[in-house]
Specification:
The chain is an alpha+beta fold and 204 residues long. It has one domain: Glutaredoxin (3-Layer(aba) Sandwich), CATH 3.40.30.10. The chain contains eight helices and six strands, in the order βαβααααααββββα. The strands form two sheets. Strands 2-1-3-4 form a four-stranded mixed β-sheet. Strands 5-6 form a two-stranded antiparallel ribbon. α1 links the parallel β1 and β2. α1 packs across α5, α4 runs antiparallel to α5 and α4 packs across α7. The protein starts with a strand and ends with a helix. 41% of the residues are buried.
């Protein structure tokens, strides 16, 4: 049994959503259930790289409304211009083991959002690979990024993060996101939705 999620590394909502799912999994005593993070490369989805200012604005909203201890050192001056190679590194780690793949998926997000590291810089990415004990990604891993994207489209992924487990699939189960009449982003924790998703998953 595993929880699958399609997500991009520079998506602030995925950073929060993955942590929430991992924490709830831990609280249920089900660390035996792996989290497989598949690539949903937003630069291909949207036809352009992520705007650093937009990502920082969303991170500020998340920190102010639901995640006060996260996004400690996001640095727009060291924001990646691409995540393809970082996503490929995650794929490479999963080729070694599910546990190492999950560790890489979380470590790369922490590097970007909590430590201000440019995960698109080959030197930075190489250092992270060395820290994880993962080989550098190759063309097969980059191909896997696109294969994940195509598979996600076929499965009906609507955005980052989109979770699947058994017969359950849901977009961003830990957060309720809306805009008020003044177009201000409103974010609330949706614990009931998260618990319901994991109960459906873990009892499948």
């Amino acid at each position: 049994m595993e929880i699958e999620v399609y997500a991009d590394i520079w998506c602030p909502f995925a950073h929060v959503g993955l942590r929430a799912v991992a924490e709830q999994r831990r609280s249920l005593g089900r660390d035996d259930v792996g989290i497989v993070v598949r690539a949903w490369p937003l630069e291909l989805v949207n036809g352009a790289p992520m705007d650093p200012a937009k990502a920082a604005h969303h991170a500020d909203d998340l920190r102010a409304q639901v995640a006060p201890t996260m996004f400690a050192h996001l640095d727009v001056d060291h924001f990646p211009t691409s995540t393809i190679d970082a996503l490929a590194l995650t794929a490479r780690a999963y080729r070694t083991s599910a546990a190492l793949g999950e560790r890489a998926a979380f470590a790369l997000r922490d590097a970007l959002f909590e430590h201000g590291r440019d995960i698109g810089d080959p030197a930075v990415l190489g250092a992270i690979a060395d820290e994880l004990g993962v080989d550098r990604p190759d063309d097969a891993d980059r191909h896997q990024v696109r294969a994940d994207w195509e598979a996600g489209k076929a499965r009906g992924v609507i955005g980052s993060p989109h979770f699947f487990c058994g017969d359950a699939d849901v977009f961003c189960p830990s957060l309720a996101i809306s805009r008020d009449p003044d177009t201000v982003l409103r974010i609330e924790q949706d614990r009931a939705k998260l618990v319901a998703f994991l109960q459906d998953c873990l009892t499948a």
